[in-house]
Model the fold of this input.
Amino acid sequence: MDIKQKIAQLKQLPTLPGVVVKISGMVESTDASAEDLGKIIATDQVLSARVLKLINSPIYGFPGRISSVTHGVVLLGFNVIKSLVLTASVFDIMIEQMKGLWEHSVGCAGIAARISKRFPSMDPEEISTAGLLHDLGRVVISSQLPEDYAHIMRMVEEDKRYMIECEQEVLGVDHASLLRWVVKDWNLPITLVEPLLYHHKPTLSRNAPLQTAIIHLADILVKACGYGISGDIYVPPLDETAWKRLGFLEEDVAVLVAEAEAEIETVDTFDLLG
Done:
């Protein structure tokens, strides 16, 4: 069985609760209300608490405390809440086995939100969520193909190569690209999906090039700041086309790094378990 067949046969990630399946249907329904969605999430008390903590995290920066999932749905929208449910559902793997990846993802989410606020057409909450989920493919490989994952990590360390190169050699696909087989039934908007699939190759994005460029830049900035564990031992090069698409100049680099460091100080206090 090849890698595509293995991933395609995954009905859900190991910790993904049945409530996500219900939510997927509700997001597509024109009859569902924020209250309906909030009630469904509330049926899983642990999940509900985690989603609320994410909503109130520094990543989204709401000035007041959000006390109910229903209120969060109103503020963030169905698709972002659905994505937060997915994030909260797989965090056990990330916290227990890949805490450094969780920190990297939170840092990327916060930095991406800061960058997105420069562009009036962007939705910072949706961009933040893409940052949280951008390395979900690594969680899939780690949990579903642990021997392959261990082999990849050894190659990265011993050969001093980028992770996506080692993934391609071992699996024939990298952690971002394989997500297309995982998320195909999740009914996420293309503005969320393409940043997940193409954050290492932003020029491939056709429907959400600006969002993808933002996640690409945020991913590199959080690596450059040394926060969390992305898997790479070196900071990868920035895609020139993505940089130009964002409209930044060479003199903006220092400002972006300073903002990234400030954002990391903010999100570093955030512990989903606490």
About this structure: The chain has one domain: 3-267. The chain has a mean pLDDT of 86.
